[in-house]
Amino acid sequence: MYQHGGHQGQHVMMNGQNHRGYGMQQMSKFQHNHHPHHNQASHHHNQHHQGGHINHQYNHPGGGTLPAPSSHFSQPHQNGVSENQQDDMDEPGGEHWQAQQQWAEEARANASPHHQARTVAQVSKQLSLGPSQTGNEEVQEEERNRPVTVPKGGRQGWTAIDLGGQGLRALSDVLFRYDFLQKLYLNHNNLDHLPLAIGRLKCLVELDVSGNQLRELPAEIGMLTNLERLMLVDNNLRTLPYELGHLYKLSALGVEGNPLNEDDMKRIMHMSTKEFIEFLRDGMPAPEPPVGRDWLALEDTSNATSQCEKFSAFSYNILCDRYATKSQYGYAPARVLDWEHRKEIILGEILTQDPDIVCLQELDKYNYDEFFRPKLAESGYKGYFAQKSRHETAPSDQARHIDGCGTFFKEKKYILLDSQHLNFGRKAVERSGRHASADMINRVWQRDDIGTVVLLENRATGSRMIVANAHFYWDPAYKDVKLIQVAVLMEELTRLAEEYAKMPACKNKKVFQFSDAEDNGEPMPEPGPSQEYSSGPQLPVIICGDFNSGKDSAVYDLLCNGNLGSRHEDLGDRNYGTFSEAGISHPFTLKSAYSSVGELSFTNYTPGFTDVLDYIWYSSNSLRVSGLLGDVDMEYLQRVPGFPNFHFPSDHLALMAEFVVSAPKKLKVTEADFGSGSQRDGK
Q1: Which of these ranges, 39-43, 104-108, 163-167, 437-441, has the smallest mean pLDDT?
Q2: Where residue 382 sits, what CATH number does that domain have?
Q3: Is the peptide bond before 644 cis (omega within 30 degrees of 0)?
């Protein structure tokens, strides 16, 4: 294991001698007798039928182990590579094949038990015990909201295990519980397969399984997207799975000494590791689609009376075209990132779910105007769209590709009474009668994240509803900025709700359709009189969006509790005027639609980050949840390192909830907590 405490360079590697549970050697149930001639015939049969193609490996290899030849480590090419084939490989293949030879030489030199652990121990004795001169000074600026999961439970004191040269025939599942491991050495053993659980070790940077009897790699190997070095030297591999294509960080793939099919060997001889991985990634066939997401019925509304008003809301961060780059999503095939492919899946999901209200984030103006607006109009939707403010200073050819938020609603069901575009940064510094602090200007004003608000009226019932659609700043280091942005949204919603409650009745409810909309022949509902509301919080409210905040955040606390104390830890020592001095509050009784099921398992799924960031909030005094779109099939995810992929066009999940409109309940006055009563009040 590597020891991170104390002086830099004093590293210790776990050598496995005191942890025999990791490798189960000399156990009778793993010892099966095999005949060499049978194995050779089987390999020849596979090679004959594979031709020059790389098989898409999915199945766990069955059977027992191959015999462990006593001369395995001293005979580099004992795995079926003929001398003629080796002669061909030694022909001028350039630097790439030379690298293969070098990696093989290094792997074969490491045959002694615990070679890596012994080497690290020797090196650490020679290192200076002086203070660290430099740290990791490289800062990679993210283009878009790609937070990274921070390990829970503190930093591990060791991150590597060396089980090399132990004659292991099988591995205990205990080993794969150490998902913090960065280096794992299983070289020079008698393993004939890697367990599917290898996919759990997502932090691995280096994996060495050279000098074993591996006959195939599990598809789960593609889950190890942090791998930079993978040594497979001297095994019995005839094919390599396409899932290796997910390993976009891999810079060293050692395969010499394997009886790989001819086409694969030629590619490896003439391609760098990066090029070969890209070849696998972009040639990867689409896997079987997952089982559909379940609909979670919380209330049976199928036999509801005609007086029962219900509606459905759909929220989706669709991953803007210009953010779907190879640098951000290197694990995804190029055709998966292609916008022409993704936009059709997104549209198809909207039309399949058939919601009454659709809230999209990261929708750019060009695709709003040219694709989603006309396509959804054909299905009876009308829309409202607003862009981030950076479009105001961008060249015209670039401005149309800047994203924003788009809200659509079924025009035969709703009338649009009002629409608002909220730039959180500008609203924060323009708060009435308040002087903007330096922190407000330097941290909040500079972000151009936005939200939209629409006021809808149901044509048939006359009930009104506020629909907010928002996208908040992504960076986890800026919790204060996200909190202030949400505070500004709630302040604006409070003001608008009071104005909307006083809005006179709507007299003209005649339907208006886009010129290219198709009439599906459904009769228009009989218009009902507009309902009256005594105060703003009496109006039904839903807030959809990508909040970039987890369930344990101050943002979540503020929205569901209605208040947040002054000097909250997420605000730190920064000065945000009255927000810092008096706390933050809002008058609405909000709940997350998914809180009734404990939220989804995740709404954002990438190799480096999996968590809930997206929500549909609703006013519980006037609405109740009757149904929800459920989780993604977890079995499917065992071989999917991250979204987007063939079946999920964004790194976010679509959310959908069905609501029943009920008579508004009287509200209790909510005041900000000025003391320590806040759930997360900072000290």
Answers
A1: 39-43
A2: 3.60.10.10
A3: yes
